[in-house]
Design goal:
Elements lengths: L1 H19 L11 H4 E5 L4 E4 L4 E6 L5 E5 L3 E11 L8 E8 L7 E7 L8 E7 L8 E3 L10 E7 L3 E6 L2 E7 L15 E8 L19 E14 L25 H14 E4 L21
Antiparallel strand pairs: 1-4, 2-3, 3-14, 4-13, 5-10, 5-14, 6-7, 6-13, 7-8, 8-9, 9-15, 10-11, 11-12
Bound molecules: 2-acetamido-2-deoxy-beta-D-glucopyranose.
Length: 293
Amino acid sequence: MGSFAIVPWLLFLFLAPVIMAAAPRKPIDVPFQRNYAPTWAYDHIKYFNGGTEVQLTLDKYTGTGFQSKGSYLFGHFSMRIKMVPGDSAGTVTAFYLSSQNSEHDEIDYEFLGNRTGQPYILQTNVFTGGKGNREQRIYLWFDPTKDFHFYSVLWNMYQIVFFVDDVPIRIFKNSKDLGVRFPFNQPMKIYSSLWNADDWATRGGLEKTDWSKAPFIASYQGFHVDGCEASVSETYCATQGKRWWDQKEFQDLDGLQYRRLQWVRQKYTIYNYCTDRARISTMPPECKRDRDV
Ligand SMILES: *[C@@H]1O[C@H](CO)[C@@H](O)[C@H](O)[C@H]1NC(C)=O
């Protein structure tokens, strides 16, 4: 009996990750032009291998940026980025989703550069109905300038999850029941840009961009977009029925994902608006939903 009793446990060990894995579908690499187009300073974007890789350049004249061709209501959006290497102090590389109206919704990744050998900061934010002030800041557990890493957003009616590779670094749950607005009816475009923000980005603006180190270059691959394309008609996405990102397993994080999120919060978090009593005296309602704040 002894040796047989082990078998179900072994099976459980092997199957558990499969059963519980609620990571979004594996992104598919597509050329830049499929989903994106440059927005400004076209001559500061360079294309390689038929557009499977692009590089954004920042020099003392200008930065540059690009945006998705379509607007989306819910889905999974991911980019592989290799941040500006070396002395990147003062530069900001951003990857974000935003709606285009005045009371806009926005989901933000901002990578704040640093002096050579000093750590980048990843700042995230969520705007709903034009209201932001939901900054969180973390250090990364790797050097983001050495290799390409996945940065992705999963967005459905239940939650917005920020992923770095397979690790959820932030979750913004739908807290409509607590009176918090949640992005649900304004299609968003996906944007990315590289620009100079040395008035605030690095050590609160103390470290200035060293233009003798220009040009600064951030590299991109992936360009995966799997969302409901809302440009077609206003009601299109609402009438689509359940898509994969609406399924049960994507409505909340699973146990492993919560443990990973907790690991990020405990080991890498520098700042969280939820715990900043000096700036925000009453705790925002959505913060109460955070399991361990
Ligand atoms: C830059 O490095 C300094 C010193 O290690 C650190 O305090 C800071 O958080 C780093 N990142 C940014 C973006 O300022």
